[in-house]
Amino acid sequence: MMGFVHTFVDSVLASILLTYVVTVTCNDASKPSDECQVTPVIHVLQYPGCVPKPIPSFACTGRCSSYLQVSGSKIWQMERSCMCCQESGEREASVSLFCPKAKAGERKFRKVITKAPLECMCRPCTGVEESAVVPQEIAGYTDEGPLNAHFQKS
Protein backbone atom coordinates (compact mmCIF):
# COMPACT_ATOMS: atom_id res chain seq x y z
CA MET A 1 0.00 0.00 0.00
CA MET A 2 2.86 2.39 0.86
CA GLY A 3 4.45 1.87 -2.60
CA PHE A 4 1.15 2.73 -4.29
CA VAL A 5 0.78 5.98 -2.29
CA HIS A 6 4.40 6.95 -3.06
CA THR A 7 3.92 6.29 -6.80
CA PHE A 8 0.57 8.13 -6.82
CA VAL A 9 2.10 11.19 -5.08
CA ASP A 10 5.04 11.19 -7.54
CA SER A 11 2.61 11.02 -10.48
CA VAL A 12 0.51 13.89 -9.12
CA LEU A 13 3.63 16.03 -8.51
CA ALA A 14 4.91 15.27 -12.02
CA SER A 15 1.53 16.25 -13.49
CA ILE A 16 1.47 19.51 -11.53
CA LEU A 17 5.03 20.39 -12.57
CA LEU A 18 4.39 19.45 -16.19
CA THR A 19 1.22 21.55 -16.23
CA TYR A 20 3.17 24.49 -14.79
CA VAL A 21 5.92 24.20 -17.42
CA VAL A 22 3.41 23.94 -20.27
CA THR A 23 1.46 26.92 -18.91
CA VAL A 24 4.58 29.08 -18.64
CA THR A 25 5.68 28.07 -22.15
CA CYS A 26 2.27 28.86 -23.65
CA ASN A 27 2.09 32.23 -21.89
CA ASP A 28 5.59 33.19 -23.05
CA ALA A 29 4.75 32.25 -26.64
CA SER A 30 1.86 34.72 -26.69
CA LYS A 31 4.08 37.66 -25.66
CA PRO A 32 5.97 39.60 -28.31
CA SER A 33 9.57 38.40 -28.24
CA ASP A 34 12.75 40.20 -29.16
CA GLU A 35 14.56 37.63 -31.27
CA CYS A 36 18.34 37.34 -31.06
CA GLN A 37 19.86 39.78 -33.54
CA VAL A 38 22.79 42.06 -34.34
CA THR A 39 22.04 45.55 -33.01
CA PRO A 40 23.92 48.77 -33.81
CA VAL A 41 25.42 50.42 -30.71
CA ILE A 42 27.86 53.16 -29.73
CA HIS A 43 30.91 51.79 -27.90
CA VAL A 44 33.35 54.11 -26.13
CA LEU A 45 36.97 52.98 -26.61
CA GLN A 46 39.26 53.89 -23.71
CA TYR A 47 42.98 53.54 -23.15
CA PRO A 48 45.01 55.04 -20.26
CA GLY A 49 46.35 58.48 -21.18
CA CYS A 50 44.15 58.71 -24.29
CA VAL A 51 40.94 60.61 -25.01
CA PRO A 52 37.93 58.21 -24.95
CA LYS A 53 36.47 57.79 -28.44
CA PRO A 54 32.87 56.77 -29.17
CA ILE A 55 32.59 54.57 -32.27
CA PRO A 56 29.68 52.87 -34.02
CA SER A 57 29.72 49.15 -33.26
CA PHE A 58 27.46 46.11 -32.92
CA ALA A 59 26.12 43.95 -30.08
CA CYS A 60 23.98 40.82 -29.82
CA THR A 61 20.63 41.61 -28.22
CA GLY A 62 17.34 39.78 -27.83
CA ARG A 63 15.83 36.68 -26.28
CA CYS A 64 16.33 32.98 -26.71
CA SER A 65 14.18 30.10 -25.56
CA SER A 66 15.09 28.52 -22.20
CA TYR A 67 13.13 26.04 -20.17
CA LEU A 68 13.03 23.69 -17.20
CA GLN A 69 10.70 20.69 -17.39
CA VAL A 70 10.06 17.25 -15.97
CA SER A 71 11.96 14.54 -17.84
CA GLY A 72 9.71 12.47 -20.09
CA SER A 73 11.52 9.23 -19.28
CA LYS A 74 12.51 9.86 -15.63
CA ILE A 75 9.76 11.85 -13.92
CA TRP A 76 11.90 12.33 -10.80
CA GLN A 77 14.44 14.34 -12.82
CA MET A 78 14.30 17.75 -14.46
CA GLU A 79 15.55 18.65 -17.94
CA ARG A 80 16.83 22.14 -18.56
CA SER A 81 17.89 24.09 -21.61
CA CYS A 82 19.43 27.54 -21.21
CA MET A 83 20.03 29.41 -24.47
CA CYS A 84 21.57 32.88 -24.74
CA CYS A 85 21.90 35.40 -27.56
CA GLN A 86 25.61 35.24 -28.52
CA GLU A 87 27.94 36.13 -31.37
CA SER A 88 28.54 33.84 -34.32
CA GLY A 89 31.61 35.16 -36.05
CA GLU A 90 33.22 38.53 -35.46
CA ARG A 91 34.33 41.67 -37.25
CA GLU A 92 37.45 43.62 -36.42
CA ALA A 93 38.24 47.33 -36.66
CA SER A 94 41.41 49.34 -36.17
CA VAL A 95 40.82 52.71 -34.50
CA SER A 96 43.27 55.52 -33.67
CA LEU A 97 43.01 57.17 -30.25
CA PHE A 98 44.51 60.59 -29.48
CA CYS A 99 46.83 60.36 -26.45
CA PRO A 100 47.82 63.87 -25.30
CA LYS A 101 49.50 62.53 -22.13
CA ALA A 102 51.97 60.37 -24.05
CA LYS A 103 55.48 60.33 -22.58
CA ALA A 104 58.44 61.77 -24.48
CA GLY A 105 59.32 59.45 -27.36
CA GLU A 106 55.84 57.85 -27.43
CA ARG A 107 53.34 58.53 -30.18
CA LYS A 108 50.42 60.91 -29.64
CA PHE A 109 48.14 58.50 -31.52
CA ARG A 110 47.65 54.88 -30.47
CA LYS A 111 46.11 52.31 -32.78
CA VAL A 112 43.75 49.89 -31.00
CA ILE A 113 41.95 46.86 -32.38
CA THR A 114 38.33 46.30 -31.37
CA LYS A 115 35.95 43.46 -32.21
CA ALA A 116 32.19 43.20 -32.65
CA PRO A 117 29.81 40.36 -33.56
CA LEU A 118 29.32 39.58 -37.25
CA GLU A 119 26.09 37.64 -36.65
CA CYS A 120 24.12 36.58 -33.57
CA MET A 121 22.34 33.35 -32.73
CA CYS A 122 20.88 31.46 -29.78
CA ARG A 123 23.54 29.16 -28.30
CA PRO A 124 23.96 27.37 -24.95
CA CYS A 125 24.75 29.92 -22.24
CA THR A 126 28.38 30.21 -21.10
CA GLY A 127 30.27 32.58 -18.85
CA VAL A 128 31.09 36.01 -20.28
CA GLU A 129 34.72 37.10 -20.35
CA GLU A 130 35.54 40.31 -18.50
CA SER A 131 37.02 41.73 -21.70
CA ALA A 132 33.71 41.34 -23.56
CA VAL A 133 32.38 44.49 -25.18
CA VAL A 134 29.41 45.96 -23.31
CA PRO A 135 27.39 48.45 -25.34
CA GLN A 136 26.79 51.73 -23.53
CA GLU A 137 24.12 53.13 -25.76
CA ILE A 138 21.84 51.70 -28.43
CA ALA A 139 22.24 53.74 -31.61
CA GLY A 140 19.82 54.25 -34.45
CA TYR A 141 22.18 53.24 -37.27
CA THR A 142 21.14 51.19 -40.28
CA ASP A 143 23.04 48.27 -41.82
CA GLU A 144 24.43 50.57 -44.51
CA GLY A 145 26.64 53.54 -43.97
CA PRO A 146 29.31 54.23 -41.35
CA LEU A 147 28.95 50.90 -39.55
CA ASN A 148 29.86 48.58 -42.39
CA ALA A 149 32.66 50.84 -43.63
CA HIS A 150 34.18 50.77 -40.14
CA PHE A 151 34.41 46.98 -39.70
CA GLN A 152 35.88 44.18 -41.79
CA LYS A 153 34.86 40.51 -41.61
CA SER A 154 37.52 38.37 -39.94
General description of the model:
This protein has helices spanning 2-30, 146-150, and strands spanning 37-45, 53-61, 67-70, 78-81, 83-87, 90-98, 109-117, 120-124, 137-138, 152-153. It is α+β, with helices and mostly antiparallel strands and 154 residues long. The longest helix has 29 residues, at 2-30.
Q: How would you summarize the topology of this molecule?
A:
Layout: H1 2-30, E1 37-45, E2 53-61, E3 67-70, E4 78-81, E5 83-87, E6 90-98, E7 109-117, E8 120-124, E9 137-138, H2 146-150, E10 152-153
Antiparallel strand pairs: 1-2, 1-9, 3-4, 5-8, 6-7, 6-10
Shape: elongated
CATH fold description of the largest domain: Cystine Knot Cytokines, subunit B
User: Which parts are unreliable, with pLDDT below 50 for 5 consecutive residues or more?
Assistant: 2-32, 133-145
CATH-scheme architecture of the largest domain: Ribbon
- CATH homologous superfamily heading of the largest domain: Cystine-knot cytokines
Name of the top-level CATH class of the largest domain = Mainly Beta
- Given helix and strand content, the structural type is alpha+beta
Largest sheet, strands/sense/barrel: 3 strands, antiparallel
The total domain count is: 2
Sequence of strands across the biggest β-sheet: 2-1-9
Could you spell the SSE succession in H and E letters?
A: HEEEEEEEEEHE
Mean pLDDT: 73
For the secondary structure, the number of strands is 10
Question: Rg, please?
Answer: 24 Å
Domain CTCK: 36-126
Signal peptide: 1-23
Pfam families: DAN (PF03045)
Subunit structure: Heterodimer of burs and pburs.
